[in-house]
Design brief:
The chain has 11 helices and 14 strands. By secondary structure, it is α+β, with helices and mostly antiparallel strands. Strands 2-1-7-6-5-3-4 form a 7-stranded antiparallel β-sheet, sandwiched between helices. It has a 5-stranded mixed β-sheet with strand order 9-10-8-13-14, with helices on both faces. The radius of gyration is 25 Å and the shape is elongated.
Length: about 350
């Protein structure tokens, strides 16, 4: 340990690995990371760096390094930080990146649920090699609660049966409070967890204003309808219909890009907006249609055939750009997609 401390200039080291009987590779890696993270911490940029480690055999986690703000926040030593942090977690949201279009799904766990699944979560993130999560923290003696976003990389050392996680925390309290507020006041559809029509109106209002001020070149708007949805309810039951709606909401979230917005218009209809002209709107709509077409919808071991029809319009096509004209044009093209046989996108002007 003394050699590593001298080599990397480590002072007041409080971890376990450098002083333990671990491989040279693991000890060298941890020492290297500590030096790098200390330098990052001293810059004063937003973000709290940390390094944790855990043994596979007993799943005990500890901190090898923690930024000064992290230690000050909990008012304890690095050695006690793991316990203090674990006890302070009120809510935990783990994000899973999907293979298609870099989509992201969210898993929410309470502190009680997190306690029971911690071993499995560590095995999961170790296998993936990276992790993104949000933590809601309740600090002792402080009525205020804080949200942290955690982004980290995980490396596993098979010889030592130890994994290390290194990354940084950022304070996202304002963003999460705003998100929770929207959910509480009913701006999100409870079944699909997507924004509802109220949000659509506000989103279109903002995009139209940006378009009118030439802050964006163009944007598109689409309406999507599940084909023969009444038949799903009649054949498989309304619980199956709810399953289809909820699953379709997840698929839409996976397909959309960061700049796109997807929501539930009402019933079996959904809406979407995105930056770009009608050609980009057509491409995005086709990507949605194809993804839904190949997604297996299985409810209680019954395969449910699901396809969608989509009508898409771009602001640049219209003489008058407002919510009513966008809705009318997209709805007209959606209706035409139905008349043409469904499971298709209509993106060109329809003759009356």
């Amino acid at each position: 340990m003394d050699d590593l401390r001298e080599k990397y200039g480590l002072i007041d080291y409080q971890g376990r690995i450098l002083a333990g009987k671990y491989s040279v590779a693991l000890r060298e890696r941890v020492a290297e990371l500590i030096r790098a993270f200390r330098a990052f911490d001293e810059t004063g940029v937003p973000g709290i760096p940390y390094i944790t480690a855990w043994r596979h055999q007993d799943n005990i986690m500890w901190y090898e390094f923690a930024g000064r703000e992290f230690i000050q926040l909990f008012g304890c030593s690095v050695g006690d930080l793991a316990v203090q942090f674990r006890e302070a977690v009120v809510d935990h949201r783990l994000f899973h990146r999907t293979e298609v279009e870099a989509g992201i799904s969210e898993t929410v766990r309470s502190s009680r649920e997190l306690s029971g699944s911690r071993s499995g979560l560590r095995a999961e993130v170790a296998q993936k090699g990276n992790m993104e999560a949000d933590y809601k923290i309740a600090l002792a003696g402080n009525l205020a609660q804080v949200w942290f976003k955690d982004r980290a990389r995980i490396e596993t050392f098979a010889e030592d049966q130890v994994s290390i996680s290194f990354g940084y925390l950022t304070d996202v309290t304002n963003e999460m409070v705003h998100k929770d507020l929207l959910e509480q006041i009913g701006y999100f559809d409870q079944l699909t967890n997507l924004p509802n029509r109220i949000i659509m109106g506000r989103s279109l209002e903002l995009k139209i204003a940006e378009y009118d001020r030439n802050q964006i070149d163009d944007f598109f708007f689409l309406l999507l309808d599940i084909d023969h949805f009444k038949g799903v309810n009649d054949t498989f039951g309304h619980r199956a219909g709810d399953y289809v709606l909820a699953t379709l909401g997840q698929v839409l979230n996976d397909v959309k890009r960061r700049s796109d917005e997807i929501g539930r218009f009402g019933g079996e209809e959904f809406y979407g907006t995105g930056l770009g002209d009608i050609f980009e709107g057509h491409e995005f709509s086709e990507r949605i249609r194809r993804r839904i077409e190949v997604t297996p919808f299985v409810f209680e071991e019954q395969m449910i055939p699901v396809t969608v029809s989509i009508g898409v319009v771009a602001a640049g096509e219209l003489k008058v750009v407002d919510e009513n004209h966008l809705l009318e044009a997209a709805d007209q093209r959606l209706y035409h997609a139905k008349r043409l046989g469904r499971n298709r996108v209509v993106w060109e002007s329809v003759s009356r």
